[in-house]
Amino acid sequence: MEIKSLGYRTDLLLLELGGSTLRDTGEYVVVRTPGNPGFWWGNFLLYRTPFAPGDTKIRLDDFRREFPDAKHVALGIDTVDGVIGAEDELTAAGFTGDSSVVMTADRVLQPQRPNTDSTYRFLNSDNDWEQLYRQSLATASMKVDAAYEEFTRRRLAAKRELVDDGHGKWFGAFDGDRLQSALGLMFDGSGLARFQDVQTSPEDRGRGLATTLVHHASTYGLTEGGARTLVMVADPEYLAIRIYRSLGFTDSETQLGFAKPPA
Predict the structure, then answer these.
(1) Tens digit of pLDDT for each residue in 37-58?
(2) Per its UniProt record, what CDD domains does this chain match (predicted)?
(3) Which of 1, 4, 42, 106 is in the most buried spot, having the most CB atoms within 10 Å?
(4) Burial of residue 44 (number of CB atoms within 10 Å: 0-12, 13-18, 19+)
């Protein structure tokens, strides 16, 4: 299927590799992740056009029909220019928008202040992945409850399976055996490599770990990984976007998604 957005195109690729199913209806793509029904952005509708007046109700009905048991609602727009359409209707219906910057690089710059105290390597043991799970909970922006813990377990299991199947690598910065910072880099097999979940433990922030780790993974991706283009999706309001720009990533497009949490 043809997807214009580089952000969503790489999202759907990785979801499908991880066991999600895609169904193209023409007007929208249905994305399902049976193994993790609580994963909002693994169970959503991706529309090909912005929201015209009246579309919010129509698209809510579409979602309820496609996902009758879902407690959330998640709708994306396959756009590159950030045009939403009838945003006032989305807001009135209780949706929260997520406008991310899709960034690309075909080369990377050296960090200005690299961290040389830590060890940088792949995650390669059960203990490494268990530390990644605990780190993911510690860095979560959502309330961590039993449902979120289960969601995180399932999501990381799918990501580890992608790594085990040879679709990418998960990198970590370590102090001895203790995980400090981590990220994934997944490959599409035709020259694109997509970053996943750049995160640093709260007690290890401000030491240049994420910057150094992104550079380390980028260098691997553009050499041994065989990628020609690196793709990073970033929150425009979060300070990490400055790290990516300092390493040579440039803004390419805007990725739009709208979610309505459980009542």
Answers:
(1) 989 999 999 999 999 999 999 9
(2) NAT_SF
(3) 42
(4) buried
